[in-house]
Design a protein that fits this description.
mainly alpha; elongated
Length: 173
C-alpha cells in the first residue's frame, strides 16, 4: 500500500514537473525576445552616440545583458577581436548558433537576427541604424505573438502535466 502511494506521488510529481517545464519554455522565450530587443536598442546607442567600433560595442552590450542573449554578443565580440579573417556575417552566425543552443528562441527569431547579421558591419552608420530599427520592429511583432502563445499554452501545459499524472495513477491503480 505504501509503495503504491509513493509511486503515485512520484508519477504525479514527474508529470507535473514536465508540464511546468514545457510551460516555462514559453515564458523563457518571451523574456529572451525582450532582452534581444533591449540589447539591440543598446547596440543602436553604442553605434549612434558612442561611435564605438563594432567589437567594442558588441562587448559593451554583452556585458550589460544577462542570460543566453549575452552569449550572442560576447561570442561575436570575441571572434571579432581575435580577427580570425572570417566575414562579419559568418561571425554573427556563429554567435547565433551559440545562442540557439542555450536559449528557448525559435527559428523565427533566429532567422530575423540572421538576416540582420548579413548587413552588420558592412555599411555606413546610417544604414546600420536603419537595419537596427527594422529588426527591432520585427522582434516587436514576434514578441507580441510570443506573448499570445505564452498566454494560450503556458497554463495549458502546466494543467495537462498535473492531470496527466493523475490520470496515469488512476489507470495504474
Amino acid at each position: 500500500m505504501v509503495i503504491k502511494f509513493v509511486g503515485s506521488i512520484l508519477i504525479i510529481a514527474t508529470c507535473s514537473y514536465l508540464g511546468f517545464y514545457f510551460g516555462k519554455q514559453y515564458n523563457a522565450r518571451l523574456e529572451q525576445i525582450r532582452k534581444l530587443r533591449s540589447s539591440l536598442k543598446m547596440l543602436e546607442t553604442e553605434i549612434s552616440y558612442s561611435i564605438n567600433p563594432l567589437p567594442e560595442a558588441l562587448f559593451k552590450v554583452g556585458s550589460r545583458i544577462k542570460g543566453p542573449v549575452q552569449t550572442l554578443y560576447e561570442h561575436t565580440s570575441d571572434l571579432l577581436i581575435k580577427n580570425m579573417g572570417l566575414p562579419m556575417d559568418e561571425i554573427w552566425r556563429t554567435g547565433l548558433n551559440r545562442l540557439a543552443e542555450e536559449s528557448s528562441l525559435k527559428k523565427e527569431e533566429l532567422d530575423v537576427l540572421d538576416d540582420f547579421g548579413i548587413g552588420l558591419g558592412g555599411s555606413d552608420r546610417e544604414e546600420q541604424l536603419k537595419n537596427l530599427l527594422m529588426v527591432q520592429e520585427q522582434l516587436k511583432v514576434i514578441e507580441s505573438n510570443a506573448e499570445n502563445e505564452r498566454n494560450k499554452y503556458e497554463r495549458m501545459y502546466k494543467t495537462l502535466g498535473v492531470l496527466a499524472g493523475i490520470a496515469l495513477v488512476l489507470i495504474l491503480i
